[in-house]
């Protein structure tokens, strides 16, 4: 079955650059039970945070260099994590939001929030953490120093990934409205919505070339990366990516954008200039490795995935699962894996 799925992924990306400078440098089966979504690299603190949901919910912490276990934040049912480099406090997009000391891994407090915490972003502009929710309020803004809530926001739709320029501007892809929201981080208000104008839909990943002011919106329908100007939303270019994007990154040192996909590929797009882009590579990773994080110190991309057994046989006459995905089998024991991609 796995060979067939891999073949499908290759066919989907036919005609795109398959070879390139990136390869899987390391694959660590760290195991453990529970679901997973976002992964977060604290490059300065050399920690890798992976929230695990469901039974035994926790935030698992690993050494970013060795991938050896470094601790955990227990009893935390979260989707994502972020770290304030200024205060040394970590936060999880859980309900309530968990706040901890990144040196001791000790829980400091929990913060009551509304909505359904999902994505999360640390903004160094005013040392705040943004917790995003598909339902209202779409964003809860937390002061990283003491965990107090600075305010909440309506973003006009369901937010996914967000980026910051560190100068008071935040951008959030709005998945169900096919646009990118431009946000004033000081005033906590939306200043514009940049429509993807049919070039891409269901944006699930967002990356940012801060120096040149270029946003990279990774879309699922169709599977393309849309490049647009952060200043006014002008669409500059589109490039094909893999199927099922759920995360995007940008490395300013190499001028490369990345999109990670559930089909088991990592698309690398080279920014040759602020108006010229090309697919540099489609790296085979692991099926289901749809979220990723960048270690800015090493330039390596880390992804997470697991192996699953066959889906359960539906009962006679039972209705198919909503969404038409046919269900998914149980996670195979100890199959949860961290992948490291680099040159």
What report would you give on this structure?
The chain has one domain: Methylamine Dehydrogenase, Chain H, CATH 2.130.10.10. The chain has 1 helix and 29 strands. The protein has one helix at residues 2-12; strands at residues 23-29, 35-36, 40-42, 47-53, 58-63, 69-74, 78-84, 89-94, 97-101, 106-111, 117-123, 128-133, 139-143, 149-153, 159-164, 169-174, 179-184, 189-195, 203-209, 214-219, 224-229, 235-240, 245-251, 256-261, 265-273, 276-284, 292-295, 300-305, 337-342. Strands 2, 3, 4, 5 and 6 form a 5-stranded antiparallel β-sheet that branches. A 4-stranded antiparallel β-sheet has the order 1-29-28-27, with no helix packed on it. A 4-stranded antiparallel β-sheet has the order 7-8-9-10, with no helix packed on it. Strand 8 (89-94) and strand 9 form a beta hairpin. The chain is globular, with a radius of gyration of 19 Å. The two termini are 30 Å apart.
Brief write-up:
The chain is mainly beta and 343 residues long. It has a single domain, classed as YVTN repeat-like/Quinoprotein amine dehydrogenase (Methylamine Dehydrogenase, Chain H), CATH 2.130.10.10.
């Amino acid at each position: 079955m796995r060979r067939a799925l891999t073949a499908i992924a290759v066919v989907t990306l036919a005609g795109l650059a398959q070879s390139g400078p990136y390869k899987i440098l390391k694959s660590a089966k760290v195991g453990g039970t529970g679901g997973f979504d976002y992964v977060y690299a604290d490059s300065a603190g050399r920690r890798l945070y992976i929230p695990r949901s469901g039974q035994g919910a926790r935030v698992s912490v690993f050494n970013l260099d060795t991938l050896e276990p470094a601790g955990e934040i227990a009893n935390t049912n979260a989707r994502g994590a972020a770290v304030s480099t200024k205060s040394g406090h970590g936060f999880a997009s859980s309900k309530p939001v968990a706040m901890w000391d990144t040196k001791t891994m000790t829980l400091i407090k929990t913060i009551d929030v509304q909505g359904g915490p999902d994505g999360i972003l640390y903004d160094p502009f005013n040392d705040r953490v943004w917790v995003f929710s598909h339902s209202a309020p779409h964003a809860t803004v937390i002061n990283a120093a003491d965990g107090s809530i600075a305010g909440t926001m309506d973003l006009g739709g369901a937010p996914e990934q967000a980026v910051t320029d560190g100068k008071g501007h935040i951008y959030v892809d709005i998945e169900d409205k096919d646009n990118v929201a431009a946000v004033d981080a000081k005033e906590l208000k939306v200043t514009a919505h940049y429509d993807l104008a049919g070039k891409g839909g269901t944006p699930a990943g967002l990356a940012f070339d801060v120096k040149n002011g270029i946003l990279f919106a990774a879309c699922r329908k169709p599977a393309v990366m849309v490049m647009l100007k952060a200043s006014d939303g002008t669409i500059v270019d589109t490039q094909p990516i893999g199927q099922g994007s759920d995360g995007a990154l940008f490395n300013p040192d190499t001028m490369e954008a990345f999109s990670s996909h559930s089909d088991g590929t990592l698309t690398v797009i080279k920014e040759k200039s602020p108006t010229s882009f090309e697919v540099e590579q489609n790296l085979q990773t692991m099926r289901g490795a749809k979220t990723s994080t960048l270690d800015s110190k090493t330039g390596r991309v880390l992804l997470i995935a697991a192996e699953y057994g066959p889906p359960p046989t539906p009962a006679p006459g039972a209705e198919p699962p909503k969404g038409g995905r046919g269900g998914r089998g149980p996670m195979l024991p100890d199959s949860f894996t961290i992948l490291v991609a680099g040159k």
